[in-house]
Amino acid sequence: MTGETSVIRTPDQRIRVFVSSTLHELANERVAARAAIERMRLAPVMFELGARPHPPRSLYRAYLDQSDVFVGIYADSYGWVAPGEEISGLEDEYVLAPPAMPKLIYVRRSQQREDRLAQLIERIQRDDTVAYLPFDDASQLEEQIAADLSSLLAERFEQSRRTTDEPEPASTDPLLSRVPVPYTTTIGREDDIAAVREMLTSTRNRTVSLIGPGGVGKSRLAIEVARSAQDLFPDGVYFVPLEGVFEAELLLPTIAHALGVRDNGEAALEERISRALADRRVLVVLDNFEQIVDAAPVLVQLYSVAASAQFLVTSRIVLRIRGEQVHEVRALPVPEASGTLERARDSAACALFVDRARAADATFALTEENAADVVAICRALEGLPLAIELAAAKARLLTPHGIAERLDQSLPLLTAAVRDLPERHRTMRATIEWSVSLLAPDDRELLESLGVFGRRFTLDAVEALSVGRPWEGRVIEGLAVLVDGSLVRQTDLGGRSVYSLLTIMREYAIGRLKDRGEIAAMRLAYADHYAALVRRLAPGLRGSAQADAVAELGLELPNLRGAIRHLVFTDRLDDAADFAWSLLIYWWIAGFLAEVRVWMLELLGKDKPITAHSRAVAWFFALWGQMWQNPSQEAVAGLAECARLFTESGDEDAAAMAEAARATARVQLPDPDLETAETELLAAFERLEGLDNTWAQGITQVSLGRLAWVRGSLDDALSHFNRAIDLAKACGDLFTLSVAGNQTGRLLLAQRDADAAEQVFDGTLLDSVHLHFDEGVAYGLEGMSGVAALRDDPERAGLLSAAAAAIRHRIGIFDVDAFTVHLALLDEQRAAHPAAFESAAQRGAELTLAEAVALALPESARAEAAVALARW
Q: What is the pLDDT of residue 54?
């Protein structure tokens, strides 16, 4: 394939594969394409609810804008040409695909191809930037797509290994990419964007708050400001959605997660965030702050530890904190009542209606005949953007006159029913009520039931909750109706289709469930579904399915939060403790231990009867952070009590892990008793060995190895680390492979065995990439920099050490001085080759994680790493 190319995307961005084909004719092939893409851990971008013959052009244009690879699958049919269009959606998708986007085209062999499709294929064959292949059946297609994507990723990954003399490749800033990409055009906010951007230019405005009612467009404005202000924040822009966060104590953990700061309990979260943001000019966008407004003083605390950071907040309530500058987000201006075509064209509110109406009906146009009705609609809805969008979505079913007429009939009645709400809130609710009233009863009930979900949810989850409800058996059809009506959004995440509701729509849905007296039953079903999901996935965390389980649990994190919150709220405390304990490995790998601690302390604070096992679980999580951050004899005694309670409840497995944690806590004491700690660790290992808990055995061997190292017994340390590696390999435990492997590599560096250390760090880098484990990647890169230093290669040592330091800085990790053996080796290089080393270090600090990994790994491992990185 020739033509312009770009390097592989960094771990902050998913590789998205847009699939273009006719729907029914190629149904089997579409299934095969999805399977191939998901095998590669990429994200398929497909209109799965595409029972619509022609998705709106603006919609698939938006999907294409966010995609990285174009896959076209063609057979016999050219596809349907919509009224007013000259080409089919199939050809339009090909035309709209950016010229630089890699294109993989697959054509099923046929003798019955429609003429217009044949002409399109001939055109494609003449395009020298396109890879073109024939196929016979769906199974052959699946294998071919998987092979081609693998080759493409390996090729792009290789390109990221540019030499220092090559120009900087064009790529999206990975930090900016965290900001959501709008699916539709932002209209009428130019002045607001400029005004807020101007506020952010002054570092005195530590927090800029966008204040306004629900549906006025605060989140959309925040997104546009974040994207336009990237030049003001060279170290990154982070978008932190708070709509699923209800406890003020979870603000810091949620910010940390968005920043990539991993909380394993070994340092206070505020300290990790401080390290991650130190001297960095960043913007942190906090969306939907009103539900945890009591946490606003936490932002003031962050001012002192993150002196260069600023915060952009959306809220319905002013925060009233030091350093806050408020920008009121108002509704769009509307024309005077006597709406003419000219006035309608000059109105941002009317322009928004027309844009969204065209998305629903490509033939829609603003005319002399309908201008007055469009003006009437926008005036009735008081210029509220969300209300206008909901009304415009009905343009496929109703004329502007029909919409205006129904709004005129419905709004006064509906508004009168909610007099306790502010005026604009009443208008917004009334618009939602009107829009929902056009749905069939089953679709309406489905929409209302979706309110129980967190920020996103999957088709499987909705189907699980459908049992015994009117919409059982027609979930796909119902979701299609809701997506078409702009009431539910569909996106791709982690290679799966996911759905979401706007916050205000979720509030409405929850309110309706409460009105119907069904909220408790739906939340019960919701919690039971995710408890079942956890029971299914948790065993995989201890073995070869670890990476897949971590990825799927990450996709469901908002609902894991919601489920455990509901279990605690409804006093199902034992179920909540079991839920938390079964995911211990996930919380550790992903760094969410601070959040679990909040839930477990709330559980204990209920002062309700709970089992000994639940009490042990809650105290274990509560003591974990204290064990590392504030070690004391009380923490050692508390973990011993956890072990006793676990034993009392019959959970020998958990008791042994608590005993190992107690020994680890003993090592952290200011005056550690290393002999007692070693005796306890050995006893815990023996107990775990009898219980066949291979994962915990491996982690315990790592602890024994670190203990031996601290005592100066390096041979014993290496023996323990090697045993941990053997145990981890036996069960496919990537986490322990990464942790133990990095410690082994460090010991080999200390022994100045460059070849053996390099072989070990090759493996740990790949394991860490497969697991989406930033910390392990940083350790692996540091190890490789030490190997380069031993080989007197200042260029490579400087590049890799600086890339690793940048990751450490970003995620806020610390390390025990005794284990950072690479630093002494780097000092030798810095002294011997000061200019070469420092020049390389400056360049290394600018490498993306993907570029650094590509530079560090041997050629034989790059293709595997490319596929794994694409999953991030």
A: 42
Nearest Cα neighbor of 21 from 12, 7, 33 is 33
In this predicted structure, the answer to whether residue 563 has a pLDDT above a threshold of 90 is yes
Q: What is the pLDDT of residues 197-216, one digit of tens each?
A: 999 998 889 999 999 888 88
CA–CA separation, 432 and 696 (whole Å) = 52
pLDDT digits (tens, 9 = 90+) for 93-104: 888 888 878 899
Q: Is 20 helix (H, G, I), strand (E, B) or coil?
A: strand
Long-range pairs for 669-677: beta carbons < 8 A, 24 or more residues apart: 669/631, 669/632, 669/633, 669/636, 670/631, 674/707, 674/710, 674/711, 677/707
For residue 609, how many C-alpha atoms fall within 13 Å in the half-sphere facing its CB? 0
SS3 state at 459: helix
Number of H helices, E strands in the chain: 40, 13
User: Does residue 38 register a pLDDT over 80?
Assistant: no
E strands of 178-302, at which residues? 207-211, 237-241, 283-287
Question: For residue 740, which phi and psi values (nearest 5 degrees)?
Answer: -70, -40
Instruction: Establish how many alpha carbons lie within 13 A of residue 90's alpha carbon, considering only the half-sphere containing its beta carbon.
Output: 25
What confidence score (pLDDT) does residue 23 get? 75
Residue 58 CB burial class (10 angstroms; 0-12, 13-18, ≥19): middle
Q: Which of 258, 183, 185, 193 is nearest to 224 (CA)?
A: 193
Residue 291 has pLDDT above 60, yes or no: yes
pLDDT at 3: 38
**CA nearest 104: which of 198, 43, 20, 188?**
20
Helix, strand, or coil (residue 132)? strand
